[in-house]
Amino acid sequence: MALIPFDDRDGSIWLDGEMVPWRDAKTHSLSHGLHYASLVFEGERVYSGHVFKGSEHTARLRASAKILDFDVPVSDDALEAAKHEVIKANNIVDGYVRAFCWRGSEMMAISAQQTTAHLAIAAWEWPSYFDPETKMKGITLDISKWRRPAPESAPVHAKAAGLYMICTLSKHEAEKKGFQDALMLDYRGYVAEATGANVFFIDADGVIHTPIADCFLNGITRQTVIGMAQSMQMKVIERHIMPEELANMQECFLTGTAAEVTPVSRIGDYHFTPSDISRSLVDGYEKLVRQG
């Protein structure tokens, strides 16, 4: 399959209040966001023409910007309206929306108080990663050497571009070894998350365990799946998990906007068998996102 570069596509992108042709949606190379990673973003899914949890993503984008000491330059209502405008302009039925906000090029130094905050929204077609049966085979994860930083070391609760540098490095290394993704530990050695998704484990008693989101994003899909599991009378425990505990877990799955609910069959030398609980959550999440 030929790679289609993201700077050379048909369609339209919302940029600073205007719909512009896709190929013309550009910013200057001396942007603070490019050089100093002062950029925040959201990834959102469109199902049957509707953005899932759109207002929650908008709220998180604004919160992320505030953590990085700048503001999203439009109201929440205007941002939501712009997303729908982009979806309509690009004829998206099932797809992905990326809203992102960054500091401009007025200052090229560590300080950036006088930079302009820019906002763009793009959308493109993106069906589910896998069909249900392929999903149930489970993906494989390496264990990364890179660790999620402490809250005192980085703005860990912002969805900020700079925090993904070690995710890219982790995923590249995993793919070189034949894995599809990587599990990251945190600065204390506890299980944290995958490179772009939260992780859950299921023990022999059917109890679901997931790491406490105290140094990484408490994902919107993570929160949704916890609520869904509890509504299905499943017990969910949020706690610190040591890597060696994985030997006692029967099932494992990831959650995220892109991953949705994706079972895992292997993490390093630990093996899992996706089964009934994982399937019920895969199916339940699919039904949930298609409602309305």
Question: What attributes does this structure have?
Answer:
30% strand; D-amino Acid Aminotransferase, Chain A, domain 2; D-amino Acid Aminotransferase, Chain A, domain 1; 15 strands; alpha+beta; six-stranded antiparallel sheet; 7 helices; 2 domains; globular; single chain; 292 residues
What does this structure look like?
The protein is α+β, with helices and mostly antiparallel strands and 292 residues long. The chain has helices at residues 32-36, 54-67, 76-89, 132-135, 165-176, 220-231, 276-289; strands at residues 12-15, 18-21, 39-47, 50-51, 95-103, 117-125, 139-148, 181-186, 191-194, 198-203, 208-210, 236-238, 249-256, 260-267, 270-271. It folds into two domains: 12-125, 2-Layer Sandwich (D-amino Acid Aminotransferase, Chain A, domain 1), CATH 3.30.470; 132-289, D-amino Acid Aminotransferase, subunit A, domain 2 (D-amino Acid Aminotransferase, Chain A, domain 2, Alpha-Beta Barrel), CATH 3.20.10.10. The protein is built from seven helices and 15 strands. β1 and β2 (18-21) form a beta hairpin.
